[in-house]
Amino acid sequence: MLKWDGHTHTKFCYHGSSDEQELYLEEAIAQGFERYTMSEHPPLPKGWVNDEKLMEELAMPESELSGYIAYAKEMKARYEGRLEVTIGLELDHLPGHYGYTRRFVEQWGHELEDVVYSVHYLRGAGGMRCIDFTPDDFKEGLLSFYGTMDGVINEYFDHVETAIAWAGKLPMRKRIGHLGLIRKFEKELPPINEALFRSRMEALLPILQDAGVGVDVNCAGLRVPTIGTPYVPDWFIAECIKRSIPCVYGSDSHKPAHVGLGWDWFAAQTRGQWG
């Protein structure tokens, strides 16, 4: 069983840590990881969200993307023989702006070994809203806009289905990011219709299988008080394994102390994937 952290961030993340990459990689080595994917957020279209301050924190500016790729290549070379560092991005699903993402893929795709393709944004009050910003912003920007949690959940999964189909066309290894992120603030929101959530998750299984897209088993929810569990449920992992859909652990680390969080849980769920 390859010990691989497939979803991590770097000093190029404006809502993360300024720590140098060596601190992350040395922590990964200390914990016995064999592969480590750097998967930073790429730039976003100008004005993607209406809040200018938030916009500055979401992703690096376009002028820094080449620097990030060079930084990742440097780490890959420096740690060769100690840790397999793979170069990646966490691409955002950008409805109506697929050309923006396609441009990055065309320019940098030959360098990319891994892509985590994530749904972070839904149309809401005043424009695009982050689904994982704050509980209050979720209520004001999404719950008020769609009227019910069922409405938000259905909109989210409609976008996830489209995202999987789009990611399936990418030439490198790809997986859908943190399925279930829509539940991040569930302890501060109206109750989720569990039957609806499960049915929409189940409907993703044949789509993932047909598209050849894996799953980012994202354990960052363990450090979020408003959910306290991994974003991908154990039953869904079991169903993926039955269908040979790759499941890759992701710490979603935004600081070195996050590396490895939840690995033991992930390993217990996925032993069957490797026999």
TrEMBL record:
Q: What does the record give as the reaction this protein catalyses?
A: L-histidinol phosphate + H2O = L-histidinol + phosphate
SUPFAM superfamilies per the UniProt record, alphabetical: PHP domain-like
Query: Domain PHP: where?
Result: 5-218
Enzyme class, top EC level, equals hydrolase
Source superkingdom = Bacteria
Spans through the membrane: none
Sorted alphabetically, the keyword list is: Amino-acid biosynthesis, Histidine biosynthesis, Hydrolase
- What's the Enzyme Commission number for this chain? 3.1.3.15
What Pfam families does the record point to? PHP, PHP_C
InterPro entries for the chain: Histidinol_P_phosphatase_HisJ, PHP_dom, Pol/histidinol_Pase-like
Query: Which example biological process does GO assign this protein?
Result: L-histidine biosynthetic process
- PANTHER family for the chain: HISTIDINOL PHOSPHATASE-RELATED, HISTIDINOL-PHOSPHATASE
| NCBIfam families tied to this protein | hisJ_fam (TIGR01856), PRK08123.1 (NF005996)
Family membership noted in the UniProt record: Belongs to the PHP hydrolase family. HisK subfamily.
What name goes with this protein?
A: Histidinol-phosphatase
